[in-house]
Amino acid sequence: HADYHAFIFHPTNTDLYYACNDGGIFEYSVSTNRYIDRNYGFNATQYFAGGFAPDSFGVVGGTQDNGTHYQAYGNKNLDHVWGGDGAFCHINQQNPDLVYVSSQNGVLGKNTSATTNPGGFNYGVYYALSSAGAIDDGVWFVNPFEMNYLNGDDLYFVSKRRVWYSTDAGEYWAPLTNYKANFYSIGIPNEKYPSMIYAGGQSLLLYRIDDPINAQPGDEVSLRVNTPSGMTEGFIANIKVHPRINGIIYLAMSNYSKSNEPRVWKVEDADTDNPTWVDISGDLPKNLPCNWVEIDPYRPDSVFYAATDFGLYTTTNGGKNWIKESRLPNVIVSQIRMRNDDRRLFIYTHGRGIWFADLQKVEDYYASTERAVNEEFSVYPNPTTDVLSLNYESLVGKPYSIISIANGQEVAKGTVINGINVSQLAVGNYVLRITEEGKLRTAKFVKE
Question: Which residues of 156-194 are buried (b: 16+ CB within 10 A; e: fewer)?
Fold first, then answer.
């Protein structure tokens, strides 16, 4: 298998060692010169990106050195349908027989009968892109392309120089922008025929293209104005458009440089020439790349999900506070996609396969936060070594929980008496959460 990463010798049997590669773990016998697959029950597939079927558990996903995998309706297994390094891929929501896939360096393919013929993919989309000149612009190793989930024939492809689009499922492509430097991400409003789209990339490259059907290269509008003072860097890995307001977009920054710059932004009035940039990174760990952001369609102003290099984070108060999802491994989450119709979140990890979350069930997990009006209050002494005191007598007798900011996990809970004993906590930063008559009160504190 390509890309070996580690070799580990058996501690007692000198005939055996274990090879770790992009396909997982394999046992090798020197005497028999034979490899044995030891991945049964061990899900270690490295997904770069994926898409979902209109309903059920149907998915498609592109993987590192393991090609693209596709799962049709009712099929418990994923079929290997495209080779190389799998990349961005989508399932047409209006016609699930139509599936788009891609591999390294911008090679695209599609299948028009995927549910009955999972192996029937061809290179027609790639040849159309190449003929149009998109590939000549230069492409990323894992090159993004986006599909309009309300109109699956509507495709957008970014080269390293321009944004390209197709309205006929990839049969014909045309450029939307003039030459720029390093486009990467596309944001599409929740419209069958988008009135605008957004495009971003390296070094805070961010543009709006109005009326993309009729737009001409050069019509794009730069949204770099009004960026916060001193902010010149940032790789915009993902753009998510508010599901109800086209002029509000959310940006995920995946860069490692400029470690103190926020990784999640809300840009208001993005449909004008005078946008406002708002930092909604809150208490997300600093220097943590954010690869993708999604929005709960039922609560689009308060509930967001961030895919990071260290798991999945959720905010229920508009980005003020973020909680790490403890039920997911501490793994790179390359991409997340929300199926708005049933609020199912599909989670594509680079090393632990594909997960999903049914938000109708997860809602109970955050129930107190969802019903609450969030208010901050103070505690003292802060920092503290043993006991936290509160200024509010009304909180006595109320349940509390303490969340570690480092990993998002609940580390203590109980009932407020005269104070809260935190002497057993490890040194670090925490959030105290207390629910009182429908209000969620939060206080940050430091344990020394």
Answer: bbbbbbbbbbbbebbeebebbbeebebbbbbbbbbeeeb
